[in-house]
Predict the structure.
Amino acid sequence: MKINSNFLNLKDSYLFSTVGRKTAEYKEAHPDKKVIRLSIGDVTRPLAPAVIEAMHRAVDDMSRKETFKGYGPDRYCYGYEVLIDSVKRSYARKGVSLESSEVFISDGAKSDLGNILDLFAQENTVLVPDPVYPVYVDTNIMAGRKILFADATAENGFLPMPDFKVDADLIYLCSPNNPTGAAYTREQLAEWVRYAREKNAVLLYDAAYEYFITDPALARSVYQIEGAKECAIEFCSYSKTAGFTGVRCGYTVVPHALVREGTPLNKLWARRQSTKFNGVSYITQMGAAAVFTEEGEKQIAENLGYYRENAKIIADCLDELGIFYTGGKNSPYIWMKCPYNMDSWTFFDFLLEKANVVGTPGSGFGKNGEGFFRLTAFGTREDTAEACSRLKTVLKK
Ligand code: PLP
């Protein structure tokens, strides 16, 4: 028996454990100080009432033999039609028409981002922006794939563009981006679509934060770009859109038009899912189906507005301090340059000790993250405002 030795090539993930350990040590040594965490990538607002009501109704359905549900419908890889229809309607509002069999319900974007790799041969070359959400890199290291990096830097606004001299087969794009908060315009995405089509490559487009976009110049879905259905798979999530990080639900779109080596990838994904996945719970799916109703959308808009206002408070604070940053406008993340040329961890220690504020060091997301720092808008209003006032005090000095 041999293990998958690719796992031994993974770097230990120190980022969030070190942030947690340093914060805990500081709190223990200074029990009188209130430490504020602007490092969290998790939501804090409760679920929308429409979602809660739908889930209660679904629990009741499970209690009666007439309405009890077992495994979900086979036809759409266990996704209920009412949920798939609501996803299609949300796409239709973006001008994108989808067939029901192109929408796959999942337990979140992270699982599908990892699982999708079952469809691709090991010898494919992968292109990943740096810095980025670490899942793309680690899942490909586990599979033993060659990984190339596309530099995301202050010079390109943390939005790397394709280099047609580089040959890649699988390209990850995340927009609005975690951690940089930067979001591609439609023109920029059109260039990536052109690249993927020319190289016969596949774009793996992570749209987990699309509901934070307010600027109409930015794409909400890669399928708003002509030709994308022939070269892109899109991963979406209710996590940040509707506070589902603990409920677990997402959806992945694999268009029928996406065909490689004569095989529609939709067919492969349907086969993969029906073999290795038994669907998302009925109660969860009914809750998710309430998100894109008129009432649900109004209610999630309130929560999104709350986080957006937090982001604005942080962005205004950095503007006042004259500190360079990206994000904060169409994203819950604010990616700031560490002042006084501090490296990411030095700034982390500085902020923790002087302002009792915790953020996430950018170097944990890739080499180009060094010298940058991620703050998030997912905290409470009071904490966000208090953290900003402390930032102003210590950084003005
Ligand atoms: N994609 C990105 C870019 C994320 O930042 C996250 C979570 O933080 C996910 C996907 C995971 O989403 P989910 O909770 O749906 O698995």
Notes: The two ends are 61 Å apart (CA to CA).
